[in-house]
Amino acid sequence: MSSGAPRGNGQDVRLSRGSSLSDFADKINANPGSLVQEMFNLGEMVTATQSVSDDTLLLLGEHLGFNVVIVSPEDEDRELLAQFDIDLDAAVAEDRLVTRPPVVTVMGHVDHGKTKLLDAIRKTNVVAGEAGGITQHIGAYQVVVPHQGEDRAITFIDTPGHEAFTAMRARGAKVTDIVILVVAADDGVMPQTVEALNHAKAADVPIVVAVNKVDKPDANPDKVRQQLTDYGLLAEEYGGDTMFVNVAAKPGIGIDDLLEAVLLTADAALELTAPIDGPAQGVAVEAHLDKGRGAVATVLVQKGTLRAGDSIVAGGAHGRVRAMLDEHGNQVAEALPARPVLVLGLTSVPSAGDTFLAAEDDRTVRQIAEQRQARRRAATFANSGRRKSMEDIMREIEKGETTALTLIIKGDGSGSVEALEEALFKIEIPSEVELKVIHRGVGAITESDVNLASASSDQIATIIGFNVRASNKVKEMADRAGVEIRYYSVIYQAIEEIEAALKGLLKPEYEEVELGTAEIREVFRSSKIGLIAGCIVRSGLLKRNAKARIIRDGTVVADNVTISSLKRFKDDATEVREGFECGLTLSGYGSPQVGDTIETWEMREKPRA
Ligand code: GDP
């Protein structure tokens, strides 16, 4: 079937991820309808304006003889910035480099003391002599420690756990220079220890091991060293190149040594310099909506210098830096590389891991933000639907078959929302079930969330509130619309419950479970109830109303028979056990014989793995 779409000759067609057939048609001067037809011929039903997956674009390209090049979001962002004459690599003059502090993320198994350790480190920061000294959680903080006669700063990402780390990496942001792997000495290497280690290795980030809780009587720090050799981390004292430091975060023991180890590792393994002349570039590590202050974002400068009054764009958010605060709540006028600051003045909330940059003027940053938002919307659409073949769609229409759990995630910070979403998509679920997140955002659950939940086409969505709530009015509205709202404050709990829901969503699977067998000893006819089989139960038990099959000389002579009545002597019985005699009638089979075996079974719901 010819559809009139132009054929290519192997020419390159550059398409951004999440493009639609219309976008494709534009590039090759075709009628979008003709591409819809081509895709239909290839067995996929897509509309002209719908964002499609990379695979679909590549498939169609190959079919038409074009070499489709999917442009990655990073490349695309460079192209976008180029339209504004911004070249990230050249924007900051490289001739004046300064030494910058290392940026550290703390990872490890749950309950091994990550949070306590971050607290303990925060408290050691006495050298700086900061006024107030009370640090606020802004997503990152810096401490200054004396090291070989110098005061050296270290920046800590203040969200323990792996999710934040991976969410940032997934967005292409390389923030962390060093990972502190916390392992409790009384517990040893655990699954998330290994997971953390793998993340750090994948990111090619050096590791310092904090062997924590050495104050505990059952602590065995040497065992931790031993265990980690299996994962390629050999302690220095055993001739390897990983520093292991015994600490006890709770009483605050060994923290100085740990910081020392971080600096030694940084100096040995890393080149920590950054240029400072030029507009700032960096990453947003945390962002949320603050009641009084609007959108606030903690950004980590990586290059250049950020100053109050700069126009910045962070992901799809933009604005002018109205004020910058450090982790003590003090105003700062400028932030140099590796300095985390809380930025006020953005018009919306960026996502954790979004890169930011300062630009010439408000107009530029606004336009960049708008274009990024448009692109993200397209990309979200592309990711939200699994590619469905025409066959799939038809089968679904016929049977109403696939089950999906559709979610809206609202949370108190973009980091937590993303972390939750990422973790959810890691749940292993059977292929019959689909997990869809149709919206995610920061802030309280609103009417518009409920509207979206009830408007979603195939199924009412469930709203997840992570440390956020819905007002009474919104709650009522949700009740009326039949929208379920679930609140969580711990990621693990949310994941566990949603995992259970996903498994529960599956239509139950049944399996046949043998109940018992009986041998027919006697067959006699009752004028009232027909043929009665006198039996002895040979194994298990017989139950009234149970399904049965009749086996004669090893062959099934009747299947799908029901034990319709069951008696012990004169009395009705619901079940009769092995070794006992009974009389029974069978419905569905009219000629039982002496010597037949009755095998009974029951269908039971199979538990999901
Ligand atoms: P996280 O889940 O890794 O962030 O672990 P937490 O920092 O919340 O610590 C888990 C538990 O271990 C808490 O009850 C802490 O008080 C306790 N804990 C953490 N560090 C130490 C330590 O050095 N010694 C002792 N005895 N307990 C600790």
Walkthrough of the structure:
- With 609 residues, this protein is of the alpha+beta class.
- The protein is built from 16 helices and 30 strands.
- Helix 7 (162-170) crosses helix 13, helix 13 (414-425) runs parallel beside helix 16 (491-505) and helix 14 (447-455) packs parallel to helix 15 (472-481).
- The longest helix is centred in the middle third of the chain and has 23 residues, at 362-384.
- The radius of gyration is 33 Å and the shape is extended.
- The model is unreliable at 126-132 and 382-398 (pLDDT under 50).
- It binds guanosine-5'-diphosphate.
- Residues 108, 110-116, 160, 212-213, 215-216, 248-250 line the site of guanosine-5'-diphosphate (GDP).
Q: What is the CATH level 1 assignment of the largest domain? A: Alpha Beta
Query: In total, how many beta strands?
Result: 30
What class would the helix/strand composition place it in? alpha+beta
Tell me about the largest β-sheet: 6 strands, mixed
Report the C-alpha radius of gyration, rounded: 33 Å
User: Per the principal axes of the C-alpha atoms, what is the gross shape?
Assistant: extended
The proportion of strand residues reads: 25-35%
Query: Can you tell me the number of structural domains?
Result: 5
* Overall pLDDT score: 83
Tally of helical segments:
16
Family: Belongs to the TRAFAC class translation factor GTPase superfamily. Classic translation factor GTPase family. IF-2 subfamily.
Domain Tr-type G: 99-273
Subcellular location: Cytoplasm
Organism: Actinoplanes xinjiangensis
